[in-house]
User: What shape does this take?
Amino acid sequence: MTDYRAAIRRATLAAARLHRDLGIEARATRENGRIDVFEVVARLAVPLLFKPLDGLLGAYLRDPAPGVLVTTKRSLSVQRFTAAHELGHHQLGHKPTLDDETILREAPFAAHAGDDLQEVEANAFAAAFLLPRWLVTWHCERQGWKTVALHYPETVYQLALRAGMSYTATCWTLLRYRIIGRSTAQKLVEIEPKTIKKKLLGVFRPQNYYGDVWLLTERDAGLRIEGGPSDHFVMCVREHSNAGYLWSIETLAPDGFALIGDARESREPEEAIGAPVTRRITAQSRRTQTGEMCLVERRPWQPNHVLNTLKVRYDLSGAEGEGWSRIERRYRLETA
Amino acid sequence: MSKSAKSDLPASEVERRRLCERLRQAREYLKLSQDEVASHLGIPRTALTNIESGQRRIDAIELKRLADLYRQPVSHFTGEEEATALPADVTHLARAAVKLSVKDREELSRFAEYLRARSAPKKGEK
Assistant: This one.
């Protein structure tokens, strides 16, 4: 098992070195708390292409030149994890590999006799690269989550969405950092993201649960969401209706969103009279591209006096399509 | 009949057609549209359509810029080289991967070919 531990340490150090060399921490914590692995691969001038692959998630080739291939047939978070895994192979000087579904399973995160150490290293690299400990801390501080909050699937799921990792990979990474224990991690991964999404959407039943459900609060103001076309948004905000202030939902439709739920709940039932209530607004994008969503809290009779604003920018393009990544495409086509 | 018609073409014409065909294939492999590439070059889309179909001659500067955009050396489009098989180590991997579909194998071969063409000349590599 010492080989296994050494492999994890080596991979984690390699990820940290790359973060340092490319100034990734400063950038991720200045922006939306998410590490753009495709951009990093492009900056390292390693060719990365997306192609429809049936049985493979990705591949790392080295001869005659290094290159990374990633499937178009999976979600953005799986594509990101695969690209980070292949980047790990590259940074750690590994042999070329073809990677299938097994890289997403628990196995590489736990020590098993006969594990391929090259795969253990690449997976440890991917996790440490996409969700380093400092990024977990950054999100927790921003969201006001105490460590104990990460024992709950709802919180881990929202962390995963913001960091652009799958829910399961996030659970195992939290275990790796000893933020949660093994039995908690085990319990968390047994809960399907679908169950968490259902709970967030309440009575609303979407056609399917492929999309994600973002729980947005005042703490997300200014966030840039990177999601998919079938994602839902639950805005959970305090409403000072006792003083006549109401969150206006009139801006949703012009911003390209359909309202699918609107409810008020008081946090402490016994103090219901006069206490602020929680407004819960559920919406879905009717466009699949980029934009901005803005909700304002104001008195209906004083439209120009705004008490609070919740503004988020979004990119709901979802999974990368064939060819270059969107960021590389933009970069190459713009530089004449 | 068609065979003899083909061999009747002057060598320069054969090369020119191969160039056009390779330019089109390179663009399609990267999933770039004619619109995107034409606006990158600053030419009308119809001009690019004509270049790819061989109805308009491409000048050296345009060829250089297209090669740069596609991340391939100019010689990939003008040269004699033909597609080669998978590199030995990838062939070995492909054999070991039991479930590898025919399509995935093809994608791997094409990607390896793309990488090989990229790495061919030392000059112009980033």
